[in-house]
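ok so i was messing around last nite and threw this chain in just to see what happens. nothing serious, just curious
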Amino acid sequence: MTQPTLIRRDHLRSALDLAAAGVPVLPLRAGKRPCGNCPACTGSECGGRPNMKTAGPCQCPRPCHGWAAATTDPATLQSPAWAEAWRQAHAVAYHPGGAGLTVVDLDNADAIAWACQSLPATRTVPTTRGEHWIYRGAMGSVNGVREGVDLKSTMAYARWLGPGTGTMTALPDAVRVLAVKEPSAARPAPLAVTAPAPTGGGECRHRMPAYLECGITMAEQRITEARSGVHTTVYRTFLAVLSAHGRCGCLTDTHVARLFTAAQAKGESPRHCTDAWTNARTALGM
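result:
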């Protein structure tokens, strides 16, 4: 028996174990591409696009491409219709949203460093170039929310690379706001605010006082280093800061002034800074 055959049997065994735990799974062929899971779709003969992360226009009785093929049914996984897919398989993928999960896909060291400073700790899984941070809770999937960061949840698949380490925590606002687009300029401008954030205990509850300072410094850097989409970058940065610190009461006028100064140095007007801050607060229900 050849080693490739052993590996493929291991993939099916892993898939069955995940399915038994309630995680919808599917096979991946070389290049992280989902297999066509029935004879008519092997190699895309049916006109579908098994290399894409969405279900193709297949006429099969059930979806057989991408995330839509993911299943927890052991009979389907071991059915003759799926046999060729498992013979082609180089890895196992799963549908995070179908399992009530969100994967923050960090593609490089810079992205990991950003996550360590900006997101709450959770279960992490090493990847070829970076890490997957896995949270409890589903949301829409969005690629390229910032350099080297993708969000994989509903209508997407992620490669299964093992159970990872650490305790999985609830999906935070700091991840959800990454997928929020800035309100259209045609929307009536909100009133300017007189306080930077709701009042609270006056002390950052997350880790230590240095955590707030580090977060503000990284936010300034993110705005300063924006090469395009400055409006969106400013808005998303304000959302991230407010999501992490807006309910603590630890933000001061000095912190907000630093963010506004960084934004204005990139060409943003004081009015746009105020509007973006207010819109971010509104989006978070503050």
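not much to say yet. The radius of gyration is 22 Å.
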